[in-house]
Amino acid sequence: MPIASQPMPAPPRPFADLDRLGDEIAELSAHLDAATARLLTLIRDFDARGGWNTGFSSCAAWLGWRVGLDIGAARERVRVARALGTLPRLAEALARGELSYAKVRALTRVATPETEGRLLAVGRAGTAAHIERIVRGWRRVDRQAEVRQATRQHADRGLNVYEDEDGTVVVRGRLAPEVGAPLIRALDAARETLYQRSRVTAAAASDPAMVPPTRAQQQADALALLAETALHHEIDPGAPGERYQVVVHVDAAVLADPEQPGQSVLEEGSHVSAETSRRLACDASRVVMRHDDEGRLVEVGARTRAIPPALRRALLHRDWSCRFPGCHARVGEGHHVRHWAQGGPTTLGNVVLLCRRHHHAVHEEGYRVSRESDGALEFRRPDGRTLPEVPPTAPVPTDPIRTLQAQHSAQGLQLHARTACPGWLGERLDVGWAPDVLHPRAVGPGPC
Ligand SMILES: [Zn+2]
Ligand SMILES: [Zn+2]
Fold it and tell me: How many other C-beta atoms are found inside a 10 Å radius of the C-beta of residue 38?
C-alpha cells in the first residue's frame, strides 16, 4: 500500500535564518505602517472635502463599501485620520515607520496638541501593551477631570430674572451644555419664524425707514415667542410621535408629477419642494387634502397609513436594513420604487427599505433606484453611473511589497528591522505611574 504523501516537516532553520525572517517581518511591518500614514492622510483629505458624500452617510460607511473594511475598523481609521490632523508629531512618527499603527491608534485616543510630545515619548519607549495600559490610565485621569468639570457646571447653573427700576426685565444665567443646546436651537427656530414673518410685514409696509433689528433684539423677541408658545401649550412637550408629525397639503397633480405646477405646503404654512412632499407621502400616516385650481379644499380623505403594518413587517423581514449600497442602518422608511401617486402598488415588490438619509437621497438628491426584472435593485448616481453593491477591487501591482519598498526609498525613507523598536529594555514599567506624572491634569508631581 503506497504511503500517503504527507508534507515533510520543514528542517529546523538555523537561528541566523530565523533572525533574518524576524527582521523581514519587522521591516515589512514598518513599511506597512509608513504606508498606513499615507493612507490616513488621503482619508483625512477625502473626509474633509466630503468625497464620501455621494449617497453615503459618513466617510466610514464609504470606506466600508469601497475598501471592504468592517464598520468598526472604518470608523477607527477615520477617527485616527482626523486626530492626526492636529497631531503632527505622532503623524510623522507613523509616516517614518517609527511608531506602529496600533500604538498611534491608542495614543490618539487621549493625545492633544499640548500632550502630544509627552505621549510620543511614551509611545517610543513602551511596547504596544504598555501603551494600551497607559492610555487607559490616562483616560481615567481625563474622566475624573471630566466628572469634576460636569459637577462644577451643574453646580454653577443658575438663572436670574429680575425687574429693573424702569420695569424692564433683566435675564442673566449659566446653563449646562445639554440644557443650553436645546435652548439655543429653540431660540434659533423662533428667530427664524419671527424673521420670516417680519420680512413679509416689512415688504407689505415697504417702509424704507424701518431699521432691521439687531441680533440681540431678535433673540429677545425669540425668547418672548418661546414663552408664549410654552404657556399656550401648558408647558407640555407632547408625546414623541406627535412632536414630529408632518401634515402635507398637496395638489393632487404635484404628488403624481413633481414637474407639474402646484403647491405642497406643510401644516404650518412653510413651503416644501414637490420632491419632499413625495418623500413624506411615501411612508407616512397621512390625511390627503386635495385642493382645486382656486386653492379651495375639495376633498379630505380618511387618515391612512401608506404602508400597512403587515406589509411593513414583511418589508423589515426581507430587507433587514437600508438597501442603499454600503448602508446598514436598521431604522428605515418604506420607499415606493414607483410612487403610489403615480399608480405604483403598495406591495412587497414595489417597496424597498431605505434609511431617512438615503430616502432623502433618492427623492431630493437625484439618486435613483429601480427593480430589475430578476428582482435585484439597481441604484444610480445623479450622473447616471451605477452604484454597485460591491465595488470592483483596485488593481494591485504584481509584486506589491517591492513596489511599496521602491516607493518608500524614492521618498528617501530608509526602513529597516529596528525602525519601530521600543526603547524599553525589559525593566519593569510602572504604567500606573505614567499618567499620574505625565498627564497635565494629574494632581501628582508634574513632569520635569
Ligand atoms: Zn420614497
Ligand atoms: Zn441608508
Answer: 14
